[in-house]
Specification:
6 helices, mainly alpha
Length: about 250
């Protein structure tokens, strides 16, 4: 009878130190992976932050240009309304006064120059979670303040626009707009000298009209004051953001 011999089987029992080393190596591998992913996300977030700020600076530069223009145009409008108000003390039956009346009403009372913020980046920051990338608290606070500034300007624009519409409605009760289309009255940008009509000589209507002119001038001045209050802040914010993110060095 054959006798089968089982081969010798040697079992290796791991020492506790080996288990500890393997566990430590796994832990290190996991931590390195976590740190690498965290570093990658951090670099990506910083890049997105700079992209948002760069875009916001461009929007601010556009806004400050518009602000300066709107301020100047409304200061011009305010001076014109002042000249129109002076006619309230003059005889409206005088044709020279009446020509000035027609000219100033057409030139200034319907003139509307309003600030509209180029807010594409602001909308992204507010509505798409972009603010979470802004890690500098002072920067986030400044952006929030500028958003408040735009809303403040928009609020002051409401009575400014209403005052313009009110004066235009009142003017329709006094002036005949058809004269501007009639070459016997108005030709090549000038009045011909033909006597200009007034739709109403009612002194109460005339007085109401000039009261509305005063309101329009007041709300125009208020609008200009609001624009002037925030314009320097917007200019300083551009400089601050460029310095905070090193964009000044890139343009030198």
């Amino acid at each position: 009878m054959e006798v089968h011999h089982h081969p010798d089987i040697h079992y290796h029992t791991k020492m506790w130190k080996e288990y500890l080393l393997e566990g430590f190596m796994i832990f290190v591998a996991v931590m390195l992976g976590f740190l690498a992913e965290s570093l990658r996300e951090n670099i990506s977030d910083r890049e997105k932050e700079r992209e948002y700020i760069s875009s916001f600076i461009r929007n601010l530069e556009s806004d400050t240009s518009v602000l300066a223009s709107v301020i100047g145009e409304n200061e011009w409008k305010g001076r014109g309304l002042d000249s129109l108000k002076a006619l309230a003390k003059k005889n409206m039956n005088d044709q020279e006064t009446r020509r000035s009346f027609y000219h100033l009403v057409a030139r200034y009372t319907s003139y509307y120059s309003a600030f509209i913020s180029y807010d594409a980046t602001m909308m992204q920051l507010k509505n798409s979670g972009g603010l979470r990338f802004i890690r500098k608290q002072h920067v986030a606070d400044s952006i929030a303040t500028y958003d408040l500034a735009v809303r403040d300007i928009n609020y002051s624009q409401v009575p400014y626009g209403k005052a313009i519409n009110d004066v235009m409605d009142a003017a329709q009760e006094l002036l005949d707009d058809n004269v501007y289309e009639d070459s016997t009255y108005f030709k090549d940008g000038y009045f011909t000298g033909k006597p200009l009509p007034l739709l109403s000589k009612d002194p109460d209507r005339v007085r109401v009209f000039f009261n509305k002119i005063s309101y329009e001038q007041g709300w125009t001045n208020n609008y200009v004051s609001t624009l002037q209050k925030w314009y320097p802040f917007a200019v300083r914010l551009i400089s601050y953001l460029k310095k905070a993110y090193g964009f000044e060095r890139e343009t030198q």
